[in-house]
């Protein structure tokens, strides 16, 4: 029969074949991972365009949508200026978290937003007066009842106005959540009333540290 290759040569041939197979498997795995990541990024981009959008006005009457805040991190809270206690507490907490994050100049810019759920009473002037007591960069947003309802629905925020009392005053029941959006406009996290300013700031910093922008 044919002469047998020396053992060392046979091992070298087997190793080469094994290496080629492994390289081929790694290449296919890499291609599959690239395709999966590309598909995931397309889904994220589509999600970012439709998720949590709004068409409102700021306190100067300028039309605002989510697109105006792309490129910045956003902390957004829904509430109303006649809220007796919950909203002021939440806004103090939100403002405290923003101040903590602003104290580190290495961190990217962060925009705090307040969207009213009571547009009948919260016009631009009312929002401007109310928000003066909180963070200086806290931007108030209002709009028509239909626009505000659509914005709340986009974030799945529950809103229900109670019956007016003898003086015509009423309370608006609503979800108590602060939402975090990344610079691509994608919803990243939300914080309830149990979270402290320090905990919110720590969580936001973690998201900032792990953030990777979507490619164009």
TrEMBL record:
Pfam families: SCO1-SenC (PF02630). Residues 45-209 form the Thioredoxin domain. Disulfide bonds join 83-87. It is found in: Mitochondrion inner membrane. Transmembrane segments: none annotated. One of its GO terms (biological process) is mitochondrial respiratory chain complex IV assembly. It is a single-pass membrane protein. The keyword Disulfide bond applies. Cu cation binds at residues 83, 87, 174. Keywords: Copper, Disulfide bond, Metal-binding. The keyword Disulfide bond applies. GO terms for cellular component: mitochondrial inner membrane. GO terms for molecular function: metal ion binding. PROSITE patterns: THIOREDOXIN_2 (PS51352). InterPro entries: SCO1/SenC, Thioredoxin-like_sf, Thioredoxin_domain. Belongs to the SCO1/2 family. This is SCO2 protein. It comes from Cettia cetti.
